[in-house]
UniProtKB/TrEMBL annotation:
It comes from the Bacteria. Residues 1-33 form the signal peptide. This is DUF2147 domain-containing protein. It holds the Pfam family DUF2147. The keyword Phosphoprotein does not apply. Transmembrane segments: none annotated.
Length: 173
């Protein structure tokens, strides 16, 4: 092969990797695996694998439990999540969201809705937003359950979901 051909191969390599990663993601994405025989527009919540319930969040820095979030189904079929308990030393019941920049600014964190507008799409939920009350940032959100509904993978991102961060929350009984 001449050197010009090798140069073209090197230049195309990152693009090929990105395309391959996107193809693999689409192939293994739960949205494309409808094993229940149900329509992806189904509004009923599968109780075993539903995000509805109470979830324990984990602090990214310490690995310790951070809060309990109750995810509920709204009348319109979307899911929302509220802080029902904080575990940190500074999580007093009257703690306010002083870094929030929207309507939640200076409102108590306890009882605050931090996840809203999540719509079911196959085996995952998306189309909603999630608030990080520690820094006041609001992100687009996707979530899906794993381990027979015992873990909830929550992804917050800006723009496209490949550019973001995921957390795994643990179901509380």
């Amino acid at each position: 092969m001449d050197t010009r051909g090798a140069h073209v191969m090197r230049m195309a390599h990152p693009t090929r990797l990105l395309c391959m990663a996107a193809a693999v993601y689409c192939f293994i994405s739960p949205a494309h695996a409808d094993t229940s025989g149900a329509s992806s527009s189904q509004d009923a919540v599968d109780t075993a694998n539903s995000p509805v319930g109470v979830w324990q969040t984990i602090d990214d820095h310490t690995g310790q439990p951070k809060a309990l979030i109750r995810i509920s189904q709204e009348a319109d079929g979307t899911l929302s999540g509220k802080i029902v308990k904080g575990f940190g030393a500074n999580d007093q019941p009257d703690r306010k969201c002083d870094k929030c920049t929207d309507y939640r600014k200076d409102h108590p964190m306890l009882g605050m809705t931090i996840v809203d507008g999540m719509k079911r799409d196959g085996d995952k939920y998306e189309g909603g937003k999630i608030l990080d009350p520690e820094n006041g940032s609001v992100y687009k959100c996707q979530m899906h359950t794993e381990d027979n509904g015992q873990k909830l993978v929550v992804r917050g991102y800006l723009g496209i979901s490949l550019i973001g961060r995921s957390q795994t929350w643990n179901r509380q009984n």
